[in-house]
Request: fold
Amino acid sequence: MFTGIVEELGEVTAVEELAEASRFRLRGPVVTEGAKHGDSIAVNGVCLTVVETAEGEFTADVMQETLNRSSLGALAKGSRVNLERPMALGGRLGGHLVQGHVDGTGAILSRTPSEHWELVKIALPANLSRYVVEKGSITVDGVSLTVVEAAADWFTISLIPTTLALTTLGIKEPGDPVNLEVDVLAKYVERLLAAGVDPLHRTGESK
Reply:
């Protein structure tokens, strides 16, 4: 489980194409400190398992399913990436609950800079539209953000200077893909209501 608070702006140092998979080597001195085989690290919001670490770098195998459902397949040597270690139990939840399970990808439509922040408009897949609401939470490339405005096929986010400087969202351009993860609580509520479960736990017949 993650919080969507990016710890480090890392870099892809190598990509090895495998049969229906890819092996990435990524540089991240902060997130690899104390990391070992089997640990999890979120890369642009995608939860990956550490294969090995060495001198501030780690490798991770990415299966075809993940490549199909996320923007990781577009990464190449030199690509910058957002990195985050899992949250520690008992720690502060700085963003919101993030699983690192990408729900889909969008693309940056436009960027509108202002004096103190930048408004970014992102295309929203039709199957995710119902989970995105104004002032709700969404994860974009692993960054926990608040939705400014939500439409049927797009939404906007407002980025402060810190986010622009310390994450890949500061260098993404219109047309670039981004990974999206919606609030998992909304998906659970939807599933329970569809099954006729009373969210208030009242006794009686199913709805």
Notes: The CA atoms of residues 138 and 183 lie 6 Å apart.
